[in-house]
Amino acid sequence: xxxxxxxxxxxxxxxxxxxxxxxxxxxxxxxxxxxxxxxxxxxxxxxxxxxxxxxxxxxxxxxxxxxxxxxxxxxxxxxxxxxxxxxxxxxxxxxxxxxxxxxxxxxxxxxxxxxxxxxxxxxxxxxxxxxxxxxxxxxx
Length: 140
Hints:
Distance between the termini: 35 Å
Structural class: alpha+beta
Strand content: 15-25%
Order of helices and strands: EEEEHHEEHEH
Radius of gyration: 14 Å
Number of strands: 7
Oligomer: single chain
Shape: globular
Largest sheet: 3 strands, antiparallel
């Protein structure tokens, strides 16, 4: 892997096993272009979320206004995971574990700040999906 420092973010780059995983890697590493999903912490560019939604949270159906509601640019650190199901870091960050779906390989935020709006949480609960906030500030 190659380490690179860019602004306030620290990136760890890895080679992904499959060609389709490349599409999940943020296309633009400028911090102003990156956003993290508020449900699973997957990091992509705004355009990638608008075009493809969140690969883990397909239930969010991210149209343009939903990208702003369901993602945040307020996060710290990025970790690239090739095999999240085998990663101790994924367990430590609560990306995998009891009650969580199997995440896709990709880049994930280490710390995410912000919460989903109430209407989005209500629609998730109506579909039987439990929202577990990743925002550590509000969990204290």
